[in-house]
Specification:
This protein is an alpha+beta fold. The chain is 47% helix and 18% strand. Helix 1 packs across helix 4 and helix 4 runs antiparallel to helix 5. Keywords: ATP-binding, Kinase, Nucleotide-binding, Phosphoprotein, Transferase, Two-component regulatory system.
Length: 254
């Protein structure tokens, strides 16, 4: 049995400004995390190759009869600089890596309902209704509520943009769970995810939007995984997409 909650859209004069600002700050930090991770991934491979080749050349030139002494010095410089660059990238990743978050035992429905006025205000821009369905027996989870709200905001915003010219525009948020986890789903009535982009959606910098950054879903995945959760999506038969994320239940919580 489920209960449907569809609060009236908030007044435009009450945009929950503080919550919006906190979510925007999380979005900015998450984007920086993913940018640092993406840059490190792209640069570590060539830098590793430079180091390997440079050290191999150094060993060859360190033989009793080196080929060219100046080349040996150049290779030593290449090796040292490559190692320094690798250490610098490691420091950047550490700086922008997962940080301490203010986690607390939370009721998922409360976390969603706190964000709902902001989502309703966002939905008005797309002439779309956002509704929430809450199942019974959803376990308590230990989360940073603001970061999880950022994930939900991102998924709902994507769902709103996916509606296109659909006549009956509606985005539905479903909350369900079992003794092991709580699941939040965002369901739209768009055209679904094309096969050629399914494997790329959560990659940093990948986007199908003309002005997109490709960081929204990537940062959402990073946040969910920081909480030991999982995130994914399914196309719905007949049209639409269901994006979902699952968070582990808090051990011993009532």
């Amino acid at each position: 049995m489920t209960t449907r909650q569809t609060p009236a859209p908030p007044s435009p004069d009450d945009p929950s400004a503080r919550l919006v600002e906190e979510l925007l700050q999380i979005a900015r930090l998450s984007a920086l995390e993913e940018m640092a991770s993406g840059f490190a991934h792209e640069l570590n491979q060539p830098i590793g190759a430079i180091t390997t080749f440079a050290q191999a050349g150094q060993r060859m030139l360190d033989r009793p009869q080196p080929m060219v002494q100046p080349a040996l010095e150049v290779l030593r410089h290449v090796s040292n600089e490559a190692l320094k660059a690798g250490e610098g990238i490691h420091r950047i990743r550490k700086l922008f890596g997962p940080t301490h978050t203010a986690r607390a035992e939370s009721v998922v429905a409360d976390v969603v309902n706190e964000l709902l006025p902001v989502l309703q205000l966002l939905a008005k821009r797309y002439a779309t209704i956002v509704s929430v369905e809450v199942a019974q027996s959803i376990p308590v989870v230990t989360i940073d509520p603001r970061r999880i709200q950022h994930v939900l905001y991102t998924l709902v915003q994507n769902a709103l943009e996916a509606q296109g010219d659909t006549a009956d525009r509606q985005v539905r948020i479903e909350l369900c769970g079992d003794r092991y986890s709580a699941t939040v789903s965002v369901i739209d009535r768009g055209s679904g995810i094309p096969d050629d982009v399914r494997n790329h959606l959560f990659r940093p910098f990948f986007t199908t939007k003309p002005n997109g950054t490709g960081l929204g879903l990537a940062s959402s995945r990073a946040i969910v995984e920081e909480h030991d959760g999982t995130i994914g999506f399914d196309n719905i038969a007949g049209g639409g997409t269901r994006f979902w994320f699952r968070l582990p239940a808090t051990a011993g919580a009532s």
